[in-house]
Write a structure and sequence with these properties.
single chain, 200 residues, mainly alpha, three-stranded antiparallel β-sheet, two-stranded parallel ribbon, 7 helices, 5 strands, disordered N terminus
């Protein structure tokens, strides 16, 4: 995945178009564009036998691209997965609110949960709580105090990581736990939306 730009029209990847979305309406005119908003997820997989997942979309996109979007996403920067092309599309809320690129916003808004699916992101307060929880498991008293000092004020996450660099065992444990949380969140999102990744 390439680094995100400030252009809301740029895509993280460029691929050929996959087969038409099976949920695309037939014989009807496209829905009217609506003001940009992020509506709640709709489960597209439909009812099925208990314990059996029904896949609605096979999407050619790599998991590391989804992870990058998950980690870079925020209340100001939303990332959408286009299930037809596998592209990851950024929408910057401040640009939209200033009236920039309304066509892109309307296009995505009209296809939310049909073609464009909002990739989740971790709210900043949850990231802070995870650091606090981790600090509570640190046995080294000096490291624990250094981490507590590091998470005070702005730039807490950067300082937290800078302290951990000097403690490779604890740093590896933090990274492993963080990786597991991200994977769990993305797996849950893929399950809810009926998306299956094709990473070939």
């Amino acid at each position: 995945m390439r680094p995100a730009s400030r252009s809301p029209t740029s895509a993280y990847s460029s691929r050929g178009r996959s087969p038409n979305d099976p949920h695309h309406s037939r014989g009807r005119s496209p829905p009217q564009a609506a003001p940009f908003s992020v509506r709640p997820f709709l489960v597209r997989s439909g009812p099925g036998r208990e314990g059996v997942r029904r896949v609605a979309f096979h999407v050619r996109v790599r998991r590391d691209e989804l992870r990058r979007a998950y980690e870079q996403g925020s209340a100001e920067a939303r990332y959408f997965l286009d299930v037809q092309t596998g592209d990851i599309l950024p929408i910057f809320v401040d640009i939209i609110e200033r009236g920039g690129n309304p066509e892109d916003a309307r296009r995505i808004a009209s296809g939310v949960n049909v073609r464009y699916f909002l990739i989740p992101h971790k709210p900043s307060h949850e990231g802070y709580e995870e650091m606090e929880e981790f600090i509570g498991t640190v046995r080294d008293k000096r490291l624990r105090q250094a981490l507590l000092d590091a998470i005070e004020g702005k730039g807490a996450f950067r300082r937290f990581r800078e302290v951990l660099v000097s403690y490779p065992v604890d740093e590896e444990r933090w990274l492993d736990e963080r990786e597991a949380r991200v994977r769990e969140e993305l797996d849950s999102w893929l399950e809810r939306t009926g998306i299956e990744l094709d990473e070939t």
